[in-house]
């Protein structure tokens, strides 16, 4: 997996079949305006690579593309936007800030299972261990097109991690 800021990605050729790009849009902010900016900028990049026929569609659980051979998955970590781009059949991306919060162990217990919850509890770096596990879990759900549900077992998938500032980013592929 190659990681680029948006300005760097604009200078690259389009990803090939085996490539996996993780693109960071720094200091994007929060809320609907940030999401709109991210989608506009990614669409601009894709159109530079593939032409004006590329469209981004907001249907179902995840955005989809037409007019190019790529899949995309989008996440936010509170300030930065993250986009995974690749031709893989299944692709999911999730970014999580590695920070402690009061309900962390309850959330782990409800969603991540007993073994992962125990590993988090025993870790000296609980927030970071939780962030890795949660990012992988959410990215896997996105790759499979599944909704979040308590005590939901997900299959093992290839996971690439990236750590940037306080965020842990997981990109899952088939």
Question: Could you characterize what this model shows?
Answer:
The protein is α+β, with helices and mostly antiparallel strands. It has two domains: 2-89, no CATH class; 96-173, no CATH class. 34% of the residues lie in helices and 30% in strands. The chain contains five helices and nine strands, in the order βαβαβββββαααββ. Strands 1-2-6-5 form a four-stranded mixed β-sheet. It has a three-stranded antiparallel β-sheet with strand order 7-9-8, covered by helices on one side. A two-stranded antiparallel sheet has the order 3-4. β3 (55-59) and β4 form a beta hairpin. α4 (114-122) runs antiparallel to α5 (126-144). The longest helix is centred in the N-terminal third of the chain and has 20 residues, at 31-50. It is globular. The model has no long low-confidence stretch (mean pLDDT 93).
The beta-strand count equals 9
Order of helices and strands: EHEHEEEEEHHHEE
Strand count, sense and closure of the main sheet? 4 strands, mixed
Cα radius of gyration in angstroms? 16 Å
Q: Please indicate the count of domains.
A: 2
Portion of residues within helices: 25-40%
Which stretches are low in confidence, meaning pLDDT under 50 for 5 or more residues running?
Answer: none
Distance between the termini: 14 Å
SS class? alpha+beta
Output mean pLDDT: 93
What general outline do the C-alpha atoms trace? Answer: globular
* Strand order, largest beta sheet: 1-2-6-5
């Amino acid at each position: 997996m190659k990681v680029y800021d948006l300005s760097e990605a604009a200078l690259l050729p389009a990803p090939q079949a085996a490539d996996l790009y993780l693109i960071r849009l720094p200091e994007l902010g929060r809320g609907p305006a940030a999401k709109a900016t991210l989608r506009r900028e990614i669409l601009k990049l894709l159109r530079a690579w593939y032409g004006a026929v590329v469209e981004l569609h907001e249907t179902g659980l995840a955005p989809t593309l037409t007019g190019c051979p790529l899949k995309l998955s989008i996440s936010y970590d509170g300030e930065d936007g993250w986009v995974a781009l690749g031709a893989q059949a299944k692709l999911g991306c999730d970014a999580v800030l590695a920070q402690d919060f009061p309900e962390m162990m309850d959330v782990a217990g409800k969603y991540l299972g007993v073994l992962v919850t125990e590993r988090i509890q025993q870790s000296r770096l609980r927030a970071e261990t939780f962030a890795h596990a949660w990012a992988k879990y959410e990215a896997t759900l996105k790759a499979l097109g599944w909704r979040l549900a308590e005590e939901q077992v997900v299959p093992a998938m290839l996971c690439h991690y990236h750590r940037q500032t306080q965020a842990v980013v997981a990109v899952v592929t088939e």
